[in-house]
Amino acid sequence: MPQPVVHFEISAKDRAKITDFYSQLFGWQVNADNPMNYGLASTKDGELGIDGGIYQQQDENDTPGVRVYAQVDDAAAYLAKAQELGGTPVQEAMEIPGMGIIIGMFLDPEGNRFGVIQPLHGHG
Questions:
Q1: Structure pTM?
Q2: Cα separation of 53 and 7, whole Å?
Q3: Which pLDDT tens digit goes with each residue over 43-53?
Q4: CATH no. for 72-124
């Protein structure tokens, strides 16, 4: 069974500027009122669309770009499988406090960043 794409992220040097850009362009509602100051973007129109996030880059290794995340049942296992298939791990599976998820990230064989999200029991 395919693993669905359930989340996207846009990294930005100036999160407020990029949030304003996408809000005005597409009418997205973005809420960064959370401890991580992570801009949660609501893009759904009825059943169409997926939600995502806009975040402030933290260092020079975090390049601008859009990333997508697939929902999986075992983030660590999918990261290991990606590595077996020629991918490169860039973020080990880790729980995000208060969000009810475990995330991880890898580079595919062409260098594209891609993430996996594992909902914890009782969430998502």
A1: 0.82
A2: 8
A3: 888 888 899 99
A4: 3.10.180.10
